[in-house]
Amino acid sequence: MDATGDPAGVGREHAEWFTAWVIQTRSTSTALRKYKALQQFFNYLVDSDEMDRRPMAKLSQPSTTERLVPIVTDDKLADLLGTCNGKTFRDRRDTIIRLLIDTGARLAEIANLALDDLDLSRDGVIVHGKGDRIRFIPFGDRCAQAISRYLPPRA
Q1: H or E element that contains 135
Q2: Which residues form a coiled coil (predicted)?
Q3: In CATH, which superfamily holds the domain spanning 74-154?
């Protein structure tokens, strides 16, 4: 855009510069999202006769690479669970970390659980995920035992 805020002054070089800047300051996945949003914005401007050309027409989108999520070793998990071995309320509460381990649910999904979301008869939990997606996730026997030991003192 020029100083008046008119997007008609945007050229390919501006889009290339912006994409390179986002890659350098953020990440390639962020750059790809912003690239697609800008592309749609300029397509809309052309379709609504606000612009007569598409500044990103032959500009290739940033390529992203899959990042591997680091895996926690069994020894580290055992150490983590070992810190919750006591009989105090706090120790029993902390064994809820098994829900994260067993279900693979997001932290926000587990943190936002209500008691009604637990289904101990089926050893599972109902989580409200991204985009209001609701799903049932089963968990293991040890997780069910930890939850059963935690609920009475919690009440």
Answers
A1: strand 134-138
A2: none
A3: Intergrase catalytic core (1.10.443.10)
